[in-house]
Amino acid sequence: MVTYVFLVAAAMAIVFALVAIMHRSPVVNVLALIMVFLALAVIYAVLGMDFLAAIQIIVYSGAVLVLFLFVIMLLNIRKVERFGSGRPLQAFLGAAASIGVGMGVILAARQLAPSFGEVIEGAEKGTAIPLGKALLTTHLFAFELISVVLMASLIGAWVLARKEDS
Amino acid sequence: MIPIPHTWVLLLSAVLFMIGSMGVLLRRNGIAIFLSLEIMLNSANLVFAAFALKLAHEGQMAAAAAGQLFVFFIIAVAAAEAAVGLALFIAIHRLKESIDVDRLNILRW
Question: Which of A75, A96, A108, A112 is most deeply buried (CB count within 10 A of its CB)?
């Protein structure tokens, strides 16, 4: 049962990722990407990582992609160029390069012996408790540094996007 | 026990990385390139999740929690990066009336 949920979510992620990179309308691209992220949240949930599923939906589908939609509507972009149009040689080389990279990773992954994960410790109460403990003890410095990074990006975005008044 | 081998997650992440890199290389609209970058970041997150699954199988629960926290940090950094990148595209659009990356050629010799 869980396996089928995983397979359906994986198929949805791949199909909507293709829509997200190929469709000509940026709004459709963003909506397809929201579906990809929801499918990935389902996969995290199926793997027993409920905290990741929650922040995937809240941060990615909720915050980042809404930001994308805002910018697309602010700049009023309706249709963009056709996928891979313009320079056929470069488009062919780009497609070949990315397929080569992907095939390399797939072949490498096939060399690994498959293993099945246990549910993370304390998972009967959700993974948020052990993750929160690790976040505020072992990884405290990185956790505090993230707040500095977010503040810097907030100020940076404001400086970059404001109008240059004399 | 989770009935999904971690190699399946790795395969899905490889396919998503391939799709994302194809989008980055073949699109010319700046926002479309950015969306493809987000797909690539998410495929990297899936690799961390897959190896957290493998470490949990081997009983290393602290390392498995660290793998999930890596995903958390990548999501936070990706949000910061999206804010700065979209601000850059707004600035470029103000300058060029377009965010087609082929038209950003003033640094060419």
Answer: A75
